[in-house]
Design brief:
Length: 57
């Protein structure tokens, strides 16, 4: 049985039959999503722009 650690709280959860994977529960999934939107969106946007530049050359 494959197990993963919840990125939000570190709790081990089963990968199979887990609707919130890789998180342990809906609460952790939403917490990580809001964190990503608030803190890391700008970083992701930079990476996307770099990839577009490579494909154009
Ligand atoms: Zn969790």
């Amino acid at each position: 049985m494959k197990k993963v650690k919840c990125p939000n709280c570190g709790k081990e959860v089963e990968w199979e039959n887990n609707p919130f994977r890789p998180f342990c529960c809906e609460q952790c999934k939403l917490a990580d999503l809001s964190k990503w939107l608030n803190e890391e969106y700008a970083v992701v946007e930079e990476i996307v722009l770099e990839e577009e530049g490579d494909s154009g050359s």
